[in-house]
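Troubleshooting log. The previous structure file for this entry was overwritten by mistake, so regenerating from the original sequence record. Sequence copied from the archived sheet and checked twice against the printout by T.R.
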Amino acid sequence: MGSQRTLVIACGALAREINQLKKINGWEHLELTCIDAALHFHPEKIAAQLRARIHENRDRYRDIYIAYAECGTRGEIDKIIEEEGIERLPGAHCYQFFAGEESFAQMSEDEPGTFYLTDFLVRHFERLVVRSLGLDRHPELRDAYFGNYTRLIYLSQTSDEALVLAAMEAAKFLGLAFVQVHTGYGDLEHSLRRKFDGLKDGEKDSHLLA
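Regenerated output below.
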């Protein structure tokens, strides 16, 4: 028989945000385990990792929630949550649920050649973008990877001047125009509060973060 606690299995890119939301909302019954965010470069591996974590923990918790969007898995995450009878975050990816579905769709329509960063990706830009793509060793590859992009939009979750400056440097490094759109925690917060506080659709979040 599992405990009265809920396990959230999350992408490592959301760990800081979920822990902050846990703190400000007093979700003492929530426990968090994360899967390496670098798997977004290998989305075909995400589903197997999720299924393994679910099976390892099924009997230890009252409930399990998946803090992943679709994340390029071609429906594999949705297949798992249907088979296992659990829920996940809504949307296609973290950019969409941070910005909101309508706002993200408008940004994408306005300029399809947009590269997006979140707080997490700004903090780990060197590791997850520069080194992962080999741009530190082969800077000439930049235009091959980013030649069809025209701008970088930094979807900021917090008001941190150091992160804004780092995002501007990332845009300069990639040769892209820079735009900042402050989203707060967007639909990530709303979805988790619906899950853990019983917030109904249409009700206003009381802890939106600056």
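The two ends are 40 Å apart (CA to CA). Archived copy saved in two places this time.
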